[in-house]
Design goal:
The protein has about 200 residues and is mainly alpha-helical. Helix content is about 50%, strand content about 0%. It has two domains: about 60 residues, no CATH class; about 90 residues, no CATH class. The termini are far apart. Bound molecules: zinc ion.
């Protein structure tokens, strides 16, 4: 169950509808030209692909239902209903809200020519995805946000931690100058300068 939400009155962009639509033929044509061999040959990716359904069912449904039953005597009915189904519905809708709500409730400090907006409430709900105007203006920035890791973007804190121990590298961020130029030229005027941290 996913709540349908319209994006600019366009039925093709329903929060659920876009997932059910067949992609544009050009998407299929161009996706075939992308060299994915490094990812396809990565042993960790192969392991994940092979055991995807086992992990998905175990960690998404079996454990969340069994933990309350065996740890604090929750009833089966409540464990399945709340920890299993309700939790899954809430988190699925929070995740997909980025494709709908984050495109029409908020400011556009970086680029007014695109639909995505900045929305702190969504950033908190989705662990950092709500800074969407920035993310689409600078899609190659690993932080998906101008100011780096903070309580609204714990995903970046994890990535920075991985960078410190060598698991993540070549993390890209735009220079403070580039951000200033883009925001000044295309933003809605709500941008203000805060130093940009570089990924080490
Ligand atoms: Zn988007």
């Amino acid at each position: 169950m996913v709540i349908p939400i319209m994006l600019n009155g366009d039925c093709s962009s329903l929060i659920l509808g876009w997932l059910m639509q067949r992609g544009h033929p050009e998407v299929f044509r161009r996706s075939k030209t992308i060299d994915m061999s490094d990812i396809d040959n990565n042993p960790l990716v192969q392991f994940h692909t092979k055991y995807y359904w086992f992990f998905k069912i175990t960690f998404c449904f079996v454990l969340p239902v069994l933990v309350p039953i065996f740890c604090w005597n929750e009833s089966w009915m409540e464990a399945i209903g709340i920890s299993g189904v309700l939790r899954f519905v809430i988190f699925t809708n929070m995740t997909f809200s980025i494709n709908s709500l984050a495109h029409f409730w908020g400011t556009k400090p970086y680029d007014t020519r695109i639909k995505p907006v900045q929305n702190m409430a969504l950033a908190i709900l989705t662990t950092g995805e709500g800074w969407h105007n920035y993310h689409h203006a600078f899609p190659w920035d690993y932080r998906a946000e101008e100011y780096g890791g903070n309580f609204t973007n714990p995903t970046t804190i994890v990535l920075d931690l991985f960078a410190k121990i060598g698991w993540a590298y070549d993390c890209k961020t735009p220079s403070a100058d580039l951000v200033r130029q883009v925001a000044t030229k295309h933003g809605d005027g709500s941008w203000s300068e805060v130093p940009v941290e570089e990924c080490k």
